[in-house]
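Weekly modeling sync, notes
Attendees: AB, CL, MP (scribe)

Item 1: holo prediction request
CL wants a bound-state model with coenzyme A before deciding which constructs to order. AB pointed out that an apo prediction alone won't tell us much about the pocket. Agreed to run with the ligand included and paste results into these notes for async review.

Input as submitted:
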Amino acid sequence: MNFTTVWAVQCQNLEDKDFLDQLKARLVRSETQRVLRFRKSSDAVRFALGRALLRSLIISKGANKQFSQKAAWQDIVIEEDISGGKPYLSNNAKAHLGHVADFNISHDGEWVVAGVTPNEPVGVDVAHVYCPENMSDVEYISEFNLQLSSEEKEYLYKHSQQKLADFYRIWTAKEAYTKALGTGVASIDLASISVHLPPINGCLYVSANWQVTHLLQVATGTLDEGRYVYAVAKHPSLPLEFRIANIGDITLD
Ligand SMILES: CC(C)(COP(=O)(O)OP(=O)(O)OC[C@H]1O[C@@H](n2cnc3c(N)ncnc32)[C@H](O)[C@@H]1OP(=O)(O)O)[C@@H](O)C(=O)NCCC(=O)NCCS
């Protein structure tokens, strides 16, 4: 059976230079160059960890398909267009990794999440659940009113029993949805995308421009006892296989 497979890993070594050096060994040259451009070592670690986690996940999924680990690692070349857009596998990587059609990565704070699918697009997002100390949850959420649909505001302000957590579920769902499509949030009217809470069978349904889309559904969950929320936008026919990975699952030597 085919799945949308997602791994999440927590990293508390964000300032550890030796750890970053170990991660760098898991990158290809263009990624190593990008690591050098980060000003903050924590951003470099999150980026390097995201790419290393993705490779570990792809290799683990391919292990039962007779890919040699060494060959597969070097074959997983990720390309990005200068103008932005969703990173994608190089043609050579696609030829080697027939079991991966799409992938996506997200990182925030201490958490890094990566997802892959054998067909159909995938988008992932993780966010630290945060509200400034000098604001109430409602005051903070209302700063995002222009990006929320009328149905989302109705649910959040009138019905939700846990407004901040539900706001982050909606927000990460929107991010994951736009990341699956590859647009990102910058070029899209986020209020035209509406996430329907409460979930049905554990999944949220999304309507874009007021038409319910059956193309993608979004599963959400919490990490670290609710301090983080994640969302995975995926095709309804591909059940979610979610796992909290350990740093040790990422081959570092
Ligand atoms: C960029 C964006 C897709 C995700 O940003 P974010 O929520 O801050 O960050 P996340 O950690 O969730 O996601 C970052 C990852 O998404 C992936 N990504 C980048 N652009 C993407 C896109 N258009 N669609 C899907 N995934 C994308 C990358 O793998 C990136 O991680 P990596 O570079 O470390 O590999 C989106 O939110 C956005 O549109 N931001 C506005 C800025 C922007 O438009 N930048 C591009 C202009 S050149």
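Recorded for review: The pocket of coenzyme A is lined by residues 47, 50, 84-87, 104-107, 125, 175, 179, 182, 184-186 (CB under 6 Å).
Action items: CL to compare against the apo run; MP to circulate these notes.
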